[in-house]
């Protein structure tokens, strides 16, 4: 464009001012070309920002959210009124279908000119319009609030290292199947138990947490499948969307996907009901460790020990009641994966839950406490009679409850 402007300007100057020196005509034409170049770059930048719906003015911290949003939308609309159909106009006429986060998502994006970039966006809103879906959030590449058209997203969107196509991500975030999704609804169901299961579950913020559930019901609803039962960590009756379960669902020491678990439950209704470990009480040992870590900061795991970090204590001063101690031992023995233990080599020594290695580690630890306590109690330096009695009781409980299967 600048080259064309240069020749046109030179021709016009020669015709309009025939007595103008050649050098002056040349310089004036060059100036006109330079001005045209600047204008072209400004227009191009404006179009590029409009395509991604960039809003440059940061909202005031104390401004009401709706007022700020309306102001931003009005300003963006004013910058793009010359276009017949714009993302901003579409948002005005669209519907907000998800709001939350911010969730950090990664994806490839192709703009209106065909340029491809990799984006990291702290996602806060998703809109649905007659033109399609738009994702809104803070773009880390541009360091601005931006919107992205879902049709221009290339491949999967990655949330917490898990990639999903946009329809699957939308269903995951809203808990409702999108009309464009080709996911097949599940029709399988089961009722019985309770059966103790555990699995990793993604909440609405995209964070994974371990769930320990006394499963009593599996049922379909709205094209998705839910697991329902008593959450063994907080004691509440809850249901969990199977779409959000990461990896296998563990029943005992065997992990299965949902289809395999359903088949197992239907084929072994009596076997699961007669499982001697189904009636065990559990404690949130992972949560106990998290609270203690928040208080202590850096921890020498081998020195403190997983039992102590999980809330297990005996004795007159700091000991906890028998029911809680046994619930802690049950959780460590049957369910706790110890994935939060930062000393990985130490955690590996404990083996997997519901395994002979795990039973031996817990049994040997309590037996060591007992033997050391007996020796110190005999020396008379300190009265450990209560602690010794409780260790004896706990060791006997472990052997009666788990030794037959894992000893």
Question: What labels describe this entry?
Answer:
407 residues; alpha+beta; SH3 type barrels; 4 domains; 14 helices; 43% helix; elongated
Chain-wise SSE layout:
Elements: H1 2-16, H2 22-52, H3 65-78, H4 87-92, E1 95-110, E2 116-129, E3 132-139, E4 144-149, E5 153-159, E6 162-164, H5 166-174, E7 190-202, E8 208-221, E9 224-231, E10 237-241, E11 245-251, E12 254-256, H6 258-267, H7 269-273, H8 285-296, H9 301-304, H10 306-309, H11 322-334, H12 344-349, H13 356-379, H14 385-406
Helix pairs in contact: 1-2, 11-14, 13-14
Give an overview in words:
By secondary structure, the protein is of the alpha+beta class. β8 (208-221) and β9 form a beta hairpin. The chain is built from 14 helices and twelve strands. The strands form two sheets. Strands 4-3-2-1-5-6 form a six-stranded antiparallel sheet. Strands 10-9-8-7-11-12 form a six-stranded antiparallel sheet. The protein folds into four domains: 2-50; 65-174, no CATH class; 190-273, SH3 type barrels (Roll); 285-406, no CATH class. The termini are far apart. Mean pLDDT is 74; it is low at 45-90, 177-187 and 270-275.
Gist of the model:
The chain has 407 residues and is of the alpha+beta class. The chain has helices at 2-16, 22-52, 65-78, 87-92, 166-174, 258-267, 269-273, 285-296, 301-304, 306-309, 322-334, 344-349, 356-379, 385-406, and strands at residues 95-110, 116-129, 132-139, 144-149, 153-159, 162-164, 190-202, 208-221, 224-231, 237-241, 245-251, 254-256.
